[in-house]
Amino acid sequence: MGLANAHRLATQLGGVLPRSVSALQQSDDWNPLSGRGMRQVVEVALDELVVTGMTLMSSPPKLSRPVDEYAGVAAELAALGVAGVHRDPQPLQVKGIRPVNAGVLSYERMSYDHDPQLVSALAAEGHDGPAAAEVVLFRHDDGPRPWLVWVHGAGQGGMSDIVVARVGRIHRELGFNVAMPVQPGHGPRKDRWPAYPGTDPLANVAGMVRAVSEVRAVIGWIEPDSTAIALSGLSLGSAVAALVAGLDERVDAVALYTPILGLNGMIARHLHRWGSAAEIVGAAMASDIVSDVTSVIDPLAVHPLPPPERRLIVGAWHDQMAYRQCALDLHERWGGELYWHDGGHVGHLFSGAVQAQTELFLGALSQVP
């Protein structure tokens, strides 16, 4: 990291607490002297700290071409729409399943190659082709059982996901089998092709289309051994889960946690931390042309196939990463149940109330014959 970047990082980190307090002061019911108010400060500051670190510890933002050069691809994708861009995946072909024993946890890591068969508008840009994929499995010896497919957020995909999703309890106490697909560019796939997400708007779309296809392939693989399939997505994974829930009738229930909308626009909203160095890229990522490109991965463009009583959205009222408006807009479009955590994006992961809501949601599904 160069001196200029180190100075920028230090300056932005120094502003974490002031920005956090400023965000909370916009809420009429925030009391900084109460225990709840102090917890909210910590949670909002944690959001600011995480998003600042994720933004500035990555490479400086740049576009591979002027935004106007995306116009042709944008028009082609917009004409195809969500249904035209997301093709039904080929059956998953297992390369290997490796048992893993990690203390009190025993699970399996399954590897497979997957080709999402991208449409020509994306394939022509070099994003198509097979990639090595992975999914972590928690399976009971008997079956069939209800399954939970859990899709992680940005910067995740490692073993911490097991703790974040409280998989041990869901597996042992609720009786679910659990599949945890690793998204492209994350966890053990971090240094493999394709890179995802970043500041190439077309690569971001191709990456999410690939992730959706991989999750659907996993669903096809687990379906014969399932009594019901629940799908959950966290942050970046929420958009993947939302799209799958609108495309795949095998999904019986869907839960989205601190959801995002408009991946490229969301990234653009956080690039200001780079200062003037990101102004051109930020404006391009937020442009109408890139919005058209992104429209084929827009959760608002699909209607979820599970019935309303099997749709759950968990938002964080003081979310500084995905922002509360995403949950509000998604609920307006989707209906179902909307549950609010009164803190931040990261903080909801540690909320007992959110966990209780999750267990109610899954518990109802586990009763399905």
Automatic annotation (TrEMBL):
Keywords: Hydrolase
Protein name according to UniProt: Alpha/beta hydrolase
Protein's UniProt keywords contain Hydrolase: yes
Molecular function in Gene Ontology: hydrolase activity
Gene source species: Mycolicibacterium sphagni
Lineage: superkingdom: Bacteria
InterPro entries, A to Z: AB_hydrolase_fold
Keyword Hydrolase: yes
Taxonomic lineage: Bacteria, Bacillati, Actinomycetota, Actinomycetes, Mycobacteriales
Gene3D superfamilies: alpha/beta hydrolase
Annotated SUPFAM superfamilies: alpha/beta-Hydrolases
